[in-house]
Structure formats: structure tokens, C-alpha cells
Amino acid sequence: MSTMVSWAVPTFDDNSGMTTIDNNYSPGDSFPIGEVEVIYSAMDGSGNTAVCSFFVIVSDMEAPTFQNCPMGDVMVAYSATSGNLTAAVWPDIVATDNDASINVTVTSTYQSGDLFPLGITPVNVTAVDDYGNIALCQFDVVVFDGIPPYFSFCPPPVTVPTDLGLMTKNLSVLAVAVDNSGEVTLTPDMEIQAFPVGTTNIVFESIDSSGNVAMCNTSVIVQGELVLFL
């Protein structure tokens, strides 16, 4: 990379009125990044000389540029590659500078192929060139669970008599639900309930940590005789 630089040309005066001027650079020349000395020298007819010199300093103020920085979220379906973590993969993220001779150092909080938990995890990639110019690539890895729980046991409908001397039946009706994430909430809690005579329909609902829902339907039929006292 080079940059065109201009300046006012130095002037020399001599009592003889005759001078010869030499210079190593001229206004409009291109200069690389860094520091370059510009020298003007003047000589009169008697060989007397004078020198004017200064430095042209070209600074790199442009940040590196990323290639393959994800433009949005990296979406990954939960698969529990290791424990409750899932591997997320994205294209190799590289950074280059406006001058190929300048080194760029790239660091990242995560690498492609790392394991991520369910939910949203920010990823920050930083590129710094030799002159301290910084570029950032930021995106989120979103591990989502689209699979609902399932019932490993959904109790079948049951018909039972009332408890002795009562018009109800104390009974436990239990269902078992599991989920690929290992986290599940099951409602209602039907452990030791008093069911009245007749049919009670029960709907078990299982919800995992991602809000996926599964349902299990069953019923309890309590049979009893209605005794009339005259």
C-alpha cells in the first residue's frame, strides 16, 4: 500500500543568483506506510551547499477487514454431543489488512467446532494489525431444542371401585416424561388423589426448558353405588 503525498516545495536564495537544486522525492510521489526522509539540496556556482530535509510519515489508520464473519446468528439444533453441550460450526473467519505486508492477529472467545449449551452464547472475534487498528466480528451461537419431551409411561384408563364406606377412591396416577435435554416439568401431580364417583379425565402436560410441550391423556372411572336412606 502506498499513499500520494504533496507539500510546498522549499525555495533557496543565493547572493550569486545561481543555484542548482536536487531532491530525492517530489510532491505527488507515493510513499509506503512508515517514515521516509525527503532531502532537498542546493548548490551555488562556487560549490557552496545548503540542505532542507523533513520526514514524510504515512500512518495506517484503517482497521483490518473480516472475511466470513457471520451476518446473523449461527443456529444449531440441540444434539448433546457431549453431556448437555452441542457442537457449533461456522466458516473459518479470517482478517486481512489494507497492506499485505502488515501482520494481523486474530483472537476469538470461541472456535468453530466448540461445544455450546442450550440458549444464546455471544462470540467475539477481534483482529488487530501491527499499528493497533482493531476490527470486531460479533455474532451469537443459538442452540435450540425443537424436539418435544415424550412420555415413557402414560398410564392407561383405569376403572376402580370406591373405598370402603366412601364415595371416593384414593389413588395415585403417575406418568413419566423424559426429554433429550434432561430437563422436563410434568403437571399435574396426581400422587394420592381422592377421585369421586364417575369419570375423571386427566391431561398430563410435559414441558422442557425450551418450551416444547407433550401431552398424555388418561382417565379414572370410579364405580360406586348410591345409597338412599329412607
UniProtKB/TrEMBL annotation:
PROSITE patterns membership: HYR
Domain (HYR) ranges: 1-60, 61-145, 146-224
Coiled coil start-end: none
Pfam family, one: HYR
UniProt keyword list: Repeat
Keyword Repeat annotated: yes
PANTHER family per UniProt: FI04643P-RELATED, HYALIN
Protein name: Sushi, von Willebrand factor type A, EGF and pentraxin domain-containing protein 1
